[in-house]
Design brief:
Kinesin_motor_dom_sf; 3-stranded antiparallel β-sheet; 697 residues; single chain; 19 strands; 23 helices; alpha+beta
Length: 697
Amino acid sequence: MATSDMAEEDGVVLPLHQKVQLVRRQLGCTSKEAVSLIMQKQQRLKGKVAIESSEGIFQPCLSPGYDKENRQQNTDMIMTNEKKVEIDEVNIDARCSILSVQEEKASVLAVTKNSGLHDFAFDKVFAERTLQPHVYEEAARRLVMEFLNGTSASIICYGQTASGKTHTMFGPPGQASEELQGLVPRTCAEVLQAVERWSSRGLQVQLSASYVELFGSEVSDLLREGRVVGQHREGRYSAVRATDRVGHRYVLDGHTEWHIQSLEELQELLEHGDAAKRRAATAMNERSTRAHTVFVLSLQAWFAQYVTSGDKHARQSRFYFADLGGSEQLSKSKVDAETKAKVLVVGGEEQSRLSWQEYNRHRQRVYETLNINKGLFSLKRVIEALHQRCRMAQEGVPSHALPYVPYQDSKLTMLLQEALGGSARTLIITTVTMDPTHAEESLQTLRFAETCAQVQKRREGDQAASIIVALDKIEQEIQALQQVIARKERWETRLLRRQDRDTVAGAFGEGTMVERIEVVPTSVLVGAEVEREQLEALLHRQAELKGLSSGISAFGKDYRSMRDEATKGAVDGGRGEDFRAGHFSSRTKAKDFEDEAVLADALRFFFRSCQQAEAVFGELKARTRLQRNEIPEGYHKAAKTMRQLWEDQLAQGHETRSFGKAMLDRCTAWRAAFKVDTSSRDAALSKLIHECGLQVE
């Protein structure tokens, strides 16, 4: 696939609410203004609006005499023929990628195709430079304590190929230093220390290990040269593959276990099993594990005094370590490069024919990939079914109506059934790569990890704030690297040999050509080449993060300065006032009527068109809505009189409502009556004049 095609395929259009967050945070405007800016930018890129308008982003106030039909058209419009922009190019805001790993927040900020900016939240997050001891202390040690206390535990490592699963679980191959050891050697070392202490206190302890590999429906024992589990057993199909169906059962029953007495024995078993693994080089990983591997620790402990009675009272527990094969795409791993057709036909004539053995040998890597992906797909189905059962159980669905969990779909899920759905404590570690080339696989891994975490309520965080935090963190890392580079880097003079071809002096380019070697001294910076590569990667990530927020710079100068210039001297900051705020309306509530000015406005609203309004209230502008400070004094006097009447009725015990509630009920009754019969206004006003004792001039 070409680079441009991959760029288009990974292109992401951010949702509008995320764009609004970014614009508001950078320019300090409201949501409505941010939407307006975004829309103007999109239209400008498509060639439909002017790049610069003399009026800025503010629209002119439409006065009553404003004639929009005869307004002079803007002559600075972009002609689409002059500069055409593809719609797809305009819409793409970012690319699928992981933007930031935030250990303190236990989250990963990424750009996804479906939701744009997304914060993946987990229990723990470790950056790419986290040391192995820290991962063990923070993630696995608690499970080791559970295992020693008699509770089964499991650690399942999931991720794409070449993302570091085997390194996390076992460490580098061979005799690794203590700092580089993975979770399995560290766990076994701590368990053996506990076994020694227990033995010194009179406990009988038996620790054993199994190391198997799952390839499709085949279970192989890595501690016995990769022999298929169940074969070569007396009386049990010694030379056939029928035992593939029950291979996992042999593992769970303990037929593949080796007893362990010391850490040296364990290290020897791990090296022996590692050498028997299926491995092959692919385009994505030079040492790709071509199957799922599971290491199982079994622990039994009992008191010695019960051995003679035949009742051990043993405490049993298992610890599963699943190093899953990496998910991969054939188009990227190139494992199908050596495949050949069974029969090659050219021009209707058969050119070559392969035997079935040779045909399958060329497709071995493809079969390995298919088996790996099938096991991972079965694991995903089991996880989804378990989550669905958990959710339905919380909703009160009876146990017999809960959905079936498909453990039987693969040997992997059958072997890990206790770890996935049993009583075992399970930790799932997912490994991803920051390489943007494999961003899609990394995002799929993050989604799987988020599903495993059983997040019931997604965090609707401020993605714009997450970008600011990520930028600050990367800036600190860049400054630290620059200090290291300044300390380690030095100038070094190197002699470069350069070959020159020229004519003899004075020949002016004619005649015999002479070749000579010229040595040129050159000064170069050396000593911090690795740090320079790390700095380049950080600067690239910083540019991606800034690209999400700096796209707003296309709006021109800072919005705050534009707003200050356009609204200079305005008391309301240029936002204007709601014309409905000072008038009585259907939205007016009882508490509003506690203010007599609101009641005066309501009286004018109902009775300003009556024949007696001018004589009673001094009404002169019946057809015009007035502000509260312009309402004639007669309405205010009527409102004050109505409050006095309410106070008298309250004192006499004839009224229990508040003043605001009483006036709201009365205005509601007037509205309903006038809606039915508009001619009843005059009669209602006459009744109000008599009730309040108003004078008619």
